[in-house]
TrEMBL record:
It is found in: Cell membrane. This is histidine kinase. Its EC number is 2.7.13.3. SUPFAM superfamilies: ATPase domain of HSP90 chaperone/DNA topoisomerase II/histidine kinase, Homodimeric domain of signal transducing histidine kinase. Gene3D superfamilies: 1.10.287.130, Histidine kinase-like ATPase, C-terminal domain. GO terms for molecular function: phosphorelay sensor kinase activity. It is an enzyme of class 2 (transferase). Its main location: membrane. It comes from Actinomadura hallensis.
């Protein structure tokens, strides 16, 4: 068994109790076990009492018949058990001497010798004589007169179930109890699972919202009930969310477009002013600073527009993209300040929008160039059913506790602010959003030095195995 399998087995009870289905099954089986165990004990007591009463009636009838038949003659013939009577019969004198016995007890001492010698008139109880090697229920009646003189006792006995018999009975009952508990547990698990099928379908539908967008709706069951009300409530909530998102997106889009027009005009005027002689004019440093702020503001607006389109899941043309070819083209268009090394595996293709993937790579390269000391490495490979794109740098890296924070919008670490004060804090969130739109992921993995950004996307169907 592997470590993962052992860990899964160890965590199985916790996972079982963490679900409603598991808790309901465990509680039902536990309560059923208590009830069935009580019923089992009660049944054993009833069976014991029934058997004991039946045997006592048989013993009484046997003694009555023997007493009625006693007369001078061969005593052993008088006490031969008849069909339906107790198997053991004895006639014992007051001194405890056996004067007559059924065939199975011939040569054995009295079944209840002590009580006979004490003069008890009626014997009715459980006795375990050593010579017999077993326990028996004995019923006896002392006679006033008999062929053997006054005070003789006629006794009848029947063997009691031994320990092996009782153990077998208990084991059989426990086996039946275990089988019933298994059936109860399976039926509870199955029934609750069937009840939760529509809930699981709703959950699966809601899990697809990241890919399908808020325009997707939960199918409403034709039957009435709580599940139909749940689906209708979810769809109503989604309607309100979509309406709020549409208004927000419209505001961002309108505001961005309205701001870009005067901003573009301002940027052009500043660029024209900087071209005016003389180059040593006192006002030009201030204009250059204003131009930098205008360009940064323009970058923020461009990123906000991109995020607005991604959040709305606006349709974009999807095609088969070779990641290696895309990486070569994007790297060739750049003029990096550090060396970019590549390890590009052939035949690694995905289904996505080429422009969006180019933006992901561009954002990752810009981030790596901002932090790298001397080199950047771009890796494209296939890993099982995934296409993998890695961008590594030899900078100071990202602290482990901040690896998710860098993907938050407008979030920037102190080092990033120091190296590039003009950054928007939207490049990495946009890259992750694009990766998730196409069923992939983007995260920061461990690396001996620097940061290692890893994007995984599903391989395009039909990608050749190399």
């Amino acid at each position: 068994m592997t470590t993962e399998q052992r860990e899964a087995v160890r965590r199985w009870p916790t996972r079982l109790m963490s679900s409603v289905r598991g808790r309901a099954t465990v509680i039902t089986v536990g309560v059923s076990a208590v009830i069935l165990l009580l019923l089992f004990v009660l049944l054993l007591l009833l069976v014991r009492d029934f058997t004991l009463n039946r045997d006592r009636r048989t013993l009484e009838r046997t003694v009555e018949r023997v007493v009625y038949d006693l007369r001078p003659g061969d005593p052993d013939q008088m006490i031969v058990p008849r069909p339906g009577e107790a198997p053991w019969v004895q006639v014992v004198t007051p001194e405890g001497k056996v004067v007559a016995a059924s065939s199975e007890l011939r040569g054995h001492p009295s079944l209840a010798g002590t009580d006979v010698r004490r003069g008890k008139l009626l014997i009715d109880g459980r006795y375990c004589p050593e010579a017999l090697g077993d326990c028996a229920w004995v019923f006896g009646l002392r006679l006033r007169d008999s062929p053997w003189g006054p005070g003789a006792v006629v006794m009848a006995g029947t063997p009691l179930p031994g320990k092996p018999t009782m153990a077998g009975l208990v084991a059989s009952a426990l086996l039946v109890l275990a089988g019933l508990l298994f059936l109860i547990g399976w039926w509870t698990w199955y029934t609750i699972g069937r009840v939760f099928v529509p809930v699981d379908q709703i959950r699966a539908q809601m899990a697809d919202f990241s890919a399908l967008g808020l325009g997707h709706r939960i199918p409403v069951s034709e039957t009435s009930g709580e599940l139909r009300s749940l689906a209708e409530t979810v769809n109503s909530t989604l309607d309100r969310l979509e309406d709020a998102r549409v208004r927000e997106r419209r505001f961002v889009s309108d505001a961005s477009h309205d701001l870009r027009n005067p901003l573009s005009g301002l940027q052009m005027q500043l660029e024209l002013a900087l071209e005016e002689p003389p180059d040593s004019a006192d006002w030009k440093p201030m204009v250059r600073s204003a131009l930098g702020d205008a360009r940064r503001l323009n970058d923020i607006l461009v990123d906000l527009l991109a995020l607005s389109k991604l959040d709305s899941r606006a349709p974009a043309e999807v095609e088969t993209v070779d990641l290696a070819a895309l990486a070569r083209r994007e790297i060739g268009r750049r003029e990096p300040r550090v060396t970019i090394e590549t390890r590009l595996g052939p035949g690694v293709t995905v289904r996505a929008n080429r422009v969006r993937l180019a933006r992901v790579l561009g954002n990752l390269l810009s981030n790596a160039e901002r932090h790298a000391e001397s080199r950047i490495e771009v890796v494209v490979l296939r890993d099982g059913d995934d296409a993998v794109l890695e961008v590594l740098d030899d900078g100071s890296g990202v602290p482990e506790d901040a690896r998710e924070r860098v993907f938050e919008r407008f979030s920037r670490l102190p080092e990033s602010r120091a190296r590039d004060p003009q950054g928007t804090g939207l490049g990495l969130p946009i890259a992750r959003e694009i990766a998730e739109i196409y069923g992939g992921s983007l995260r920061i993995a461990d690396s001996p030095r620097g940061a290692r950004f890893v994007m995984r996307l599903p391989l395009a169907s039909g990608s050749p195995e190399l």
